[in-house]
């Protein structure tokens, strides 16, 4: 790196003098904590938003001398109204861990990861990536990004990689999570736009949760459901009798992956009985006649047979939807992570459309997002679409973005990126030689792990940028870049109800770790494309850029003045075009006027033949494996939540498998004994959790244990390319007899 670049780069490094600028402090003093030792007494408080799930709870951060010493849920934040789940309460603890990456690590001649300085790390990054590109072409280098860093960082990464470094392929862990909802909404509504606001949880008469377990995965959304004063009927459609199902009036334990048949059958029933809103269909949708014909053969009898749900229960379900004045449908990973997830999501959207349950309080076809900034990655990561929900293949869009950014349109790729699985396939084939993984733990969370170590080993150069030095993925890296985490940097997240919330730097990253923002700036400088990012000088400056790229789009946020306004309004939902008034703490939903985002304003019915399960059970592997969230105190691959002693007390340390008492009896499996769960691809040992949560023939293993994805089967939705994590065939045997 030339010395002038290094000098410029140094000015980008973390402000060494302190943590927090005074203007971030909201209310100094006045805590009345007489009994607390002085060093633990806060002298000021500031606000932030939780960095785990997409609920996006507001947190008050208690400061002493500018540093966070504790936190409490914000009472005035319209999302959580003074409550938080265990992860939120414990959010500061994982920052302190010994496992934090505190210096760049580089693989040395003996093959060990050894500490190095930033200058060497960045120079190595640039030299190796450029060498690969000059030998194998620009496309031979790719990146995998995340839904867990602020939008400003995502945008900088996406722009740097694609416009600065010439990559075409870059995807993110949002593919594992939200891709299905994205495609479903785009095709049906004309834009990726979850229509609801959390108030709808409180304003609904009938809430239908499909493949969603909010009691565990979105506990504070569930609290909003509990605040509903309309004596709502809660229906849970999930093969497992989850915590949420137990709290419901009606649990529909359908056969796994029979959702499409169920919803076509229900649509048919509603149409046959004329329990539909003809006026709404006529005025606001296209394709109803074809849809009606398509579902006609999904009769009550065949639907009962295909889903394992008795005809009477199907009737009950249909009449509940019919009788509800305000019916809302909520779906999460039980839908998205399926070989036909897009069509299932659209079959839910279709139900909302035929019954006119959209655009009004307490209604909607509502996809709940997963990670704290999954929605930000959908709009601003420059991965699956061009910044701001634009299209890489559309020349007018490329010109528009080039204009806004002041760059040459020819640097914008005119092709779509490969999806995550296609990038992995590229690694396998040897066409992808360099990979940069940021804030995701591929070697634990990607489907069908049997291949992953080999795959990562095939790369010429693997860079992992993470808060921790020893994630499963970092262990395969040639270079580890140490990143600051939530609370150690500024930026914005977008939650499930499209609310943009502000996060703040209230702690210092350990050692030499840097905010991802700064790491990207350093790389841009050293790569030689720093000039392209001159205007991208701080997260707040980038927020202005995000506003400009959103102009005229359904996600237009040009009316948000800046961070100040986000803070004083307690988050603001998109859209907010310039000139549109908005009140602080407001809650807004989309489609009140019945106009969707297609040019003609009409929503589309989309439907297809149901497809067979990609890996059916067999004599050898007689159980169907479901995977998902295990407890509200575990987060994904556990790099963060396992660092809190409080959270560790709240979950099972050892891997476990839920199995029904009937199956356990038959196989001679004692409660809590060790068993082997085996799929055609791999196996793991787990404690048997004998429970009626799962039905005979099904087992469930939480995703939080490193070996879970040894078992999963690599099937993908053809439209969204989202992995089908929730269906594989396995066997279960008592340990010792395996
Ligand atoms: N505590 C905690 N909270 C989290 C997370 C976490 O790791 N820990 N992760 C966050 C993220 S990124 C996400 S995406 C969300 C996920 O949130 P959820 O999707 O609610 O959680 P999961 O447990 O993955 O899956 C939900 C349910 O889908 C069911 N299911 C499986 N197959 C089918 C099927 O064929 N049909 C139907 N109808 N249901 C099926 C499963 O039995 C499971 O109960 O949670 C977010 N919140
Ligand atoms: N079997 C099975 N597998 C699944 C699922 C399932 O239901 N079943 N669910 C899928 C879903 S929905 C999801 S979203 C994925 C999640 O999968 P991952 O994204 O792999 O899970 P995380 O553990 O959240 O990984 C985030 C990583 O980012 C790091 N990190 C956190 N904050 C920062 C930051 O600010 N900067 C940087 N550089 N690093 C940071 C963390 O230390 C961690 O290593 O898993 C998927 N995998
Ligand atoms: S519900 Fe989600 S956003 Fe709220 S405190 Fe828990 S993890 Fe954080
Ligand atoms: Mo997710």
How would you characterize the overall build of this protein?
The structure is a single chain. Helix content is 30%, strand content 16%. It has 26 helices and 26 strands. Helix 4 packs parallel to helix 22 (516-527), helix 4 (151-164) packs across helix 23 and helix 10 packs across helix 14 (311-323). It is globular and about 70 Å long. One ligand MGD binds at residues 53, 177, 210-213, 216-218, 237-240, 242, 256-257, 259, 332-334, 370-371, 626, 628-629, 632, 634-636, 726. Residues 53, 177, 210-213, 216-218, 237-240, 242, 256-257, 259, 332-334, 370-371, 626, 628-629, 632, 634-636, 726 line the site of one ligand MGD.
SSE layout and pairing:
Blueprint (H helix, E strand, L loop, with lengths): L2 H8 L33 E6 L8 E7 L2 E7 L12 H4 L15 E3 L5 E3 L2 H19 L4 E5 L5 H14 L5 E3 L6 H11 L9 H5 L2 E5 L3 H4 L1 H8 L6 E5 L5 H4 L3 E3 L6 H14 L5 H7 E2 L1 H8 L4 H8 L3 H13 L3 E5 L1 H4 L4 H14 L9 E4 L6 H7 L14 H11 L14 H10 L4 E5 L3 H4 L6 H7 L2 E6 L12 E4 L8 E4 L4 E5 L12 H12 L11 H12 L12 H6 L3 E2 L29 E2 L18 E6 L16 H4 L7 E4 L1 H7 L6 E5 L4 E8 L7 E5 L25 E7 L4
Parallel strand pairs: 6-7, 6-14, 8-9, 8-12, 9-10, 11-20, 12-13, 14-15, 15-16, 21-25, 22-24
Antiparallel strand pairs: 1-2, 2-3, 4-5, 4-16, 17-18, 18-19, 21-26, 22-25, 23-24, 23-26
Helix pairs in contact: 1-22, 3-22, 4-22, 4-23, 5-16, 10-13, 10-14, 10-16
Iron/sulfur cluster binds next to helix 2 and helix 8.
